[in-house]
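ESCALATION

Customer reports they have been waiting on this structure for their group meeting. Please prioritize. Original submission:
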Amino acid sequence: MIRRTNPISPPKWAVVRSKATVAGFSVIEEFAHEGRSFSVAVGDLSHRPKALIQGEYVIRNFRRKAGDALWHETGFVGLTRADEAIVFDLKGDPEPRWPSPDFTDMTEGLALLCVYGEKSGEIAERLFPINIWPYGKTEPIITITKYGEIKVWVVNPMSREEGFFLLCARSHAQGLYDACLDAGKEIDIMPVGLREVDNWVNQIAS
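Update from on-call: job pushed to the front of the queue and completed.
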């Protein structure tokens, strides 16, 4: 099996209870502190498949405008232009075969995080210079912004439990992950493992 390196390490104080290997990545299933209540959770989904789609495939299959995002089959598609989109899979095969040459695999090039919980909006306000919950929007959206000099794609699924997904270059992943934790120090933010994140993802997919 191919061994892949995860771009993110959890804080030293967070005790890992269990791990698993998924598509060559070592992923954290559960932390020891999980089970108690928290206001915001931050999870690492960098092992999940990701791709950039360009060209006719986007226009032909999604028929959306730039800034729109949608749940498609087992993950999200976010249109950055009418003919360009980022896709990340959350529930399907962790080693998919992309359906077209218009897909460029970015699984090892991009990191994927999620932040969710009743005070996740406060984290977004502290990190980004834009509002990722624009007035009147009820359908999922994708926004391109920056945290400092880090380019970040933000997908807001507009789920019942507030939250959002963050994508950035792998080389900036640790910095963005740490920034999320730092931004939530005063509001009880916690790193969580894959099992806890799956509960939120299942709510979105239902």
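Sent to customer with the following note: The first strand starts at residue 16 and ends at 22.
Escalation resolved.
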